[in-house]
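Hi V.,

You were right to ask for the full record rather than a summary. Here it is.
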Amino acid sequence: MAKPVNDIEAAAAEIVELRTMSSAPTTEARTLERALGAQIRLLRRRQDLSVSDLATAASISLGMLSKIENGQISPSLTTVQSLAHALSVPISSLFESVEERQDCSFVPAGRGVSIERRGTKAGHNYQLLGHLSRGDVVVEPYLITLNEEATPHTSFSHAGVELIHMIKGEIKYRHGSETYHLRPGDTMMFDSGALHGPEAFMGLPLQYLSIIVYPRNHG
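Predicted structure:
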């Protein structure tokens, strides 16, 4: 027996929703076109040119240039070349804002930047797994290994939010006035402004992933 149309539509909607399982806003359509248009508008204004001036110099219609600057159409390579020539800039400069958005970090296994702790934090090895230089927030992913020299330290405090995912070993981790027993596969996420850190170890060495997120313009 065929399912009612409403049920099928609901199921389809649920599948679409579950594709990413994220509530983050979706990227706007025509990202490339919008970035290209914004860059053309920026360069035009820097040269104190009107839309009409640039359209005439590039031998395109006023309406087409307006649509290009608003990211409503995908201009041909010939049109892009004409605009670059009219603005007296290389074609690559028209895509600078697009390139800025494509920040990516790749760290091969075992090649993260290691930070060896001293003093009360001796035995706490931090391996930075990636870094992005742009964006509104800073994301610091660390692979943390506590070796035989490690001692408990519950006085960490910094801006942002932190996520911890246990990989190997067991640990009692304090956050504020609460203590959590973490085993492999366990995850906790918390406001990292509160005092926090490993309070007790159930054997060493142990290892966990720590991801710290905070606003780039903080402080």
